[in-house]
């Protein structure tokens, strides 16, 4: 493909092997190329700094541990986050919900599936009363047989991204965008909501500190990668920003 990092060619075989990890992406080839190039940049930096490890992954982790550090979240920051995200820190909340699932399969590539899902979402935004009808016609979930109904859901019953969206919707609200999870693309609507109880700050303080620490680390990592990419001699591809897909 004519791609090189710091004067070293990137083999097509490395990119082909990486594509398997990005089949759900909009552009698997682009994501694979970015991942391989970014990995090479990091390994070159580890070598420059003399960072050792038993494997490439170990060397990259050791590089991050040495070069990317952030301060711990203090009490005030945790409290501000708790007060600003009050709806997240409740127990016993229930939401009655329904969805339409467009499942990704070899016969239904993601791009084609997305076009269909976007068209159905637009139809529902114009005629929301057709939700049950269209769920029965298009949903790849067994719930399609009952109009897409998932019944009452508590926090934690669904994958995190579904939970996060569902519990931000108001009763009767149809999400204005498609939700992408490992199961495919979803059109989501919240229906009746039953409120629970507020969880005391002291109970979730450690959880909040961990989350703020993770967010700060991700920002610091993004900045670090941006600097490394800017310094590296990369030929044949342009990295859009300093993407961080290899950090989960």
Automatic annotation (TrEMBL):
InterPro entries: PPIase_dom_sf (IPR046357), PPIase_PpiC (IPR000297), PPIase_PpiC_CS (IPR023058), PrsA_foldase (IPR050245). Keywords: Isomerase, Rotamase. It catalyses: [protein]-peptidylproline (omega=180) = [protein]-peptidylproline (omega=0). Its EC number is 5.2.1.8. SUPFAM superfamilies: FKBP-like. The keyword Isomerase applies. Residues 92-192 form the PpiC domain. It is an enzyme of class 5 (isomerase). It comes from the Bacteria. GO terms for molecular function: isomerase activity. Belongs to the PpiC/parvulin rotamase family. This is peptidylprolyl isomerase.
């Amino acid at each position: 493909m004519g791609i090189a990092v710091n004067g070293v060619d990137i083999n097509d075989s490395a990119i082909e092997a990486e594509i398997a990890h990005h089949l759900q992406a909009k552009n698997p080839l682009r994501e694979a190329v970015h991942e391989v190039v970014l990995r090479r940049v990091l390994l070159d930096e580890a070598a420059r700094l003399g960072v050792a490890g038993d494997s490439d992954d170990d060397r990259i982790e050791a590089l991050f541990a040495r070069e990317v550090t952030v301060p711990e979240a203090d009490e005030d920051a945790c409290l501000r986050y708790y007060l600003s995200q009050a709806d997240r820190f409740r127990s016993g909340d229930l939401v009655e919900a329904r969805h339409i699932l467009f499942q990704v399969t070899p016969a239904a590539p993601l791009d084609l599936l997305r076009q269909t899902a976007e068209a159905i979402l637009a139809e529902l935004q114009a005629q929301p009363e057709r939700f049950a009808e269209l769920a029965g016609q298009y949903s790849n979930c067994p719930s399609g047989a009952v109009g897409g109904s998932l019944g009452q859901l508590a926090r934690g019953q669904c994958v995190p991204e579904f939970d996060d969206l569902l519990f931000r919707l108001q009763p009767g609200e149809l999400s204005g965008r498609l939700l992408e999870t490992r199961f495919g693309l979803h059109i989501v609507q919240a229906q009746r909501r039953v409120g629970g109880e507020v969880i005391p700050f002291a109970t979730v303080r450690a959880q909040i500190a961990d989350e703020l620490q993770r967010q700060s680390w991700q920002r610091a990592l993004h900045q670090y990668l941006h600097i490394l990419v800017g310094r590296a001699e990369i030929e044949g591809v342009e990295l859009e920003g300093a993407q961080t897909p290899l950090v989960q």
